[in-house]
Amino acid sequence: MTTKVKQSPRERLLEAAATLTYRDGVGIGVQALCKAAGVSKRSMYQLFKSKDELLAASLKERSAAFAARALPPADDGRSPRERILYVFERVELQAGAPEFHGCRYLAVQIELKDQAHPARRVAHKIKANLTAFFRAEADHGGASDPDLLARQLILVFDGANARAGIGADHLTGLIAPTVTTLLDAADMH
Amino acid sequence: MTTKVKQSPRERLLEAAATLTYRDGVGIGVQALCKAAGVSKRSMYQLFKSKDELLAASLKERSAAFAARALPPADDGRSPRERILYVFERVELQAGAPEFHGCRYLAVQIELKDQAHPARRVAHKIKANLTAFFRAEADHGGASDPDLLARQLILVFDGANARAGIGADHLTGLIAPTVTTLLDAADMH
């Protein structure tokens, strides 16, 4: 049995922003966001300076959950190589879900053409953390060139999310052999 | 000396749509498009059924130029392996240009959430042609699994364009070793 805790207007706005921008894009209007959240425009502007700030906050709010879902638990006994493969197994799993549109942080960065947009900066930071995870694991696993391997892995992560997100590839039988080939070439253990 | 041929309203609209959607996204308004093209709204709607049709036509219009720029000339003496590498050299070269925002066909597919949108269908078709190029070269080069290699190459193509397009990677020293590793693993000659 789950008990539904009543959400505050702030929480409802953050959830509406996350859900609607992921489904419909960053062009979603303030009116639609407020309607979905059941919050007046006036209340929204009391809580957030602007729609841009609301989008940024909604991405930030989800970043811990994203990391918890995307990354293996710390010190879980997996080797660095297995920890990297874990991330890509999760991508393949998520890609099969209905309503999957790829990585929300990549989409936001592509959709918002202004690099200085607060939501784009948040998204950039979250993905930089993922790159740092790859870099650290590459280092621990004795990769011949950890910087190169980390760049390759985040490129494959974004490429896989983009391809699956637009429905151009289901990723099955693609992502594991690709990552394995790159790990082998880097002599990762 | 170049002679500037006077463009028709249709050509000006196609160019404005291509330029402005690439720079500002697919959310660009009809008014902005018409203003940039120096064409009245009424004339636009006489030429195109809708903004959606204008976007689709502008992508289609550029597809031949895209292929000419992205792909090596037919029967140019390069090996299949070199022909594939050529495509990625071009990506790296373009990524260094100012105003580069990645592959316009990928961006359009990510930005337009509706798979049935006419512009999204055009973009999908153009990228499917690129995948078919990779598939044919993989076959000619004796790749151990041409289907897998083609899927890997278009994944790297989209990943590299996405990463460079959002300014997260400059691709130098990344794309050539990545593609070479995948070609080697597939025993491509």
Fold and architecture overview:
The structure is a homodimer of 189-residue chains. With 189 residues, chain A is mainly α. Chain A has a single domain, classed as Tetracycline Repressor, domain 2 (Orthogonal Bundle), CATH 1.10.357.10. In chain A, helix 8 runs antiparallel to helix 9. Chain A is elongated and about 55 Å long. The mean pLDDT of chain A is 96. At the A-B interface, helix 6, helix 7, helix 8 and helix 9 of A face helix 7, helix 8, helix 9 and helix 10 of B.
Count of alpha and pi helical runs of chain A: 9
Radius of gyration of chain A, taken over Cα atoms and rounded to an integer in Å:
18 Å
Count of distinct strands of chain A: 0
Overall geometry of chain A comes to elongated
Describe the largest sheet of chain A: none
**What is the distance, rounded to the nearest whole angstrom, between the alpha carbons of the first and last residues of chain A?**
43 Å
The CATH topology assignment of chain A is Tetracycline Repressor, domain 2
Number of domains of chain A: 1
- Write down the CATH class of chain A: Mainly Alpha
Low-confidence residue ranges of chain A: none
Mean pLDDT of chain A, rounded to whole units?
Answer: 96
Work out the helicity level of chain A.
Answer: 55-70%
The assigned CATH architecture of chain A is: Orthogonal Bundle
Strand content bin of chain A: under 5%
Please, what is the oligomeric state?
Answer: homodimer
Classify the secondary structure makeup of chain A into a structural class.
Answer: mainly alpha
* Topology pattern of chain A, helix = H, strand = E: HHHHHHHHH
**The CATH fourth-level homologous superfamily of chain A:** Tetracycline Repressor, domain 2
Most extensive interface between two protein chains, with residue counts = A-B, 43 and 42 residues
